[in-house]
Write a structure and sequence with these properties.
single chain, two-stranded antiparallel sheet, 5 helices, alpha+beta, 5 strands, about 20% strand, about 150 residues, 3-stranded mixed beta sheet
């Protein structure tokens, strides 16, 4: 979704630096409804927790029966609101994870397309881009090597 540039040394072809780029993972239903998400660099433990949360939401919703979409939304809102701090009033968003949780609590099981754009732009502060990865070949890679150590 975002712009990304690779700096390669022309003589050796070695990649000496990478600029831009970010990551967001979405755990969705087969129809593309987001049940949980991870934005930005996170630990394997956090990614696993969010994957397990998505599986739990789907299982709990299935156990409710009735309208599937309604059950997914009701379960997702309950789970994500339960993760929000229980302080009186609104508190500032403390982390990327808090921001994603608030979005999912406010709009449970959203469609991936719109939610991914919101996370990419509003949470991660990235620009959506359909451009291919830009490869910049340089003769002298030393400035890039020093800047990205």
């Amino acid at each position: 979704m975002g712009a990304f540039r690779v700096i390669k040394e022309r003589k050796t072809g070695a990649i000496v630096a990478k600029e831009g780029g970010n990551v967001a993972l979405y755990f969705c239903t087969p129809e593309g409804q987001v049940l949980s998400a991870v934005a930005g660099a996170e630990t394997a433990r956090v990614v696993l927790e969010e994957a397990q949360r998505a599986v739990a939401i789907a299982a709990q919703a299935a156990a409710l029966g009735g309208d599937r979409d309604e059950a997914l939304r009701a379960t997702a809102v309950r789970v994500h609101r339960g993760l929000l701090p229980r302080k009186a009033g609104r508190r500032p968003i403390a982390s990327v994870s808090d921001h994603v949780t608030r979005l999912l609590a406010a709009s449970p099981a959203p469609a991936l397309d719109g939610f991914a754009r919101t996370v990419w732009e509003q949470v991660l502060g990235q620009t959506v881009s359909d451009a291919a990865v830009e490869v910049l070949e340089v003769d002298d890679a030393s400035p890039y090597r020093e800047a990205f150590r």
